[in-house]
Predict the structure.
Amino acid sequence: MGFRKDFIWGAATAAYQIEGAAQEDGRGMSIWDRFSHEPGRVLFGHTGDVACDHYHRYKEDVALMSELGIRNYRFSIAWPRLLPDGTGEVNQKGVDFYNRLIDELLEHGIRPFATLFHWDYPVALQARGGWENADSPRWFEDYAALCARMFGDRIKDFITLNEPQCFIGVSMEEGRQAPGLRLGAPQTVPMSHHVLKAHGLAVRALRALSSDCRVGYAPCGAPCIPVSESEADICAARNAYFDVPTDERRWARNVAWWSDPAMLGRYPERALRVFEKYLPRGWERDMEIIRQPLDYYGQNIYNGRLIRAAHNEPGYEEVPLPVGFPKTAIQWPITPDALYWGPKFLYERYQTPILITENGLSCHDAVSLDGKVHDPNRVDFMHRYLLAYKRAAEEGVDAAGYFAWSFMDNYEWAHGYNERFGLVYVDYTTQERIVKDSALWYKRVMEQNDI
Ligand code: FCB
């Protein structure tokens, strides 16, 4: 018992966070290029202009992955690198870059998992209203089709969208990520419908053009952890996990609105009653497109919330974490059981193999006197989370795999380079890569297929 034989062990990155070469070889501008250059948006004004310079150093990076025993690599394709205007003319040099990367991965026996959209939305499309535009699903469908045509002969695993909760919720409601808007439900609800439709259309296009490919989705959401394993607390946690806030200015960070339509073909009922008035006319007709069978249901999980049963209207309440509760450098709480309850509740509800598309932490990593990077906190974190995930697998959850976030330190969005999530340390002045202790530890875990 434990992890299944064909368990997918891997590491993940995203284009804007590592590639750099922001203005090279005909790449178009993304909303992150613009946002990161606006004063006051990103800590210390950091931008992804250079990042890890992976665009030029991909060979060295792939060789390092291979040395570290990474057999599955999740990366993202930069939409504006392929289509500088978001639609229309293809930038051959962008295609060439991903061809080189994919070939390099395959030569090293590394299976590529390509995320089509990890937040670097083309500015040209944002100027046309972005996700608010009713044509936006078709733009994404065309881009997905292009990826299938260009790379589908070698990439067999595609992930459509990364964390719509963030690229709509954090970006369009809270304004903390590009494009930094603060909109309410009348605008964000139609966007959400277009995003979901884009996902469905993309799955269809990928399957039509690359019949043997596997497709997933990578939403997120903090799992709800019952304070005790009593039936009442478990039930309360489940309800809290799938509940959708009905606050018109802060509703988008939830699990069910973004997954029920894709996985079950319907919007969650209570939220639908509140938000239906904002859905585009004829939305019901799209539900068939939105619900597409997936090979795995991806989920990015970093931490969870503690929930207990309560005698109030929703029947649950959040339990504050005790003073001094352990947290990572970015101040996220360390809650290993998120990787037990999250997959368990998600599998119960969606009945599709669960793929952890991201999990990890930032630490105050530094190069020690011995020239190495010792990160015992990362080893301990991953160890605990993986034990929880293993428990879920042993209790019948179809646990398909796990991707560590991240292969290497990189540009952590509005936190700039101030948070280090990598298994590999990056010295941004010299671009030197230094393997952290955790990478060597993780190598053994992957080899043994056990923790
Ligand atoms: C997730 C993002 C990923 C990374 C991690 C730390 O929300 O998908 O790009 O920034 O957080």
Remarks:
- The mean pLDDT is 98.
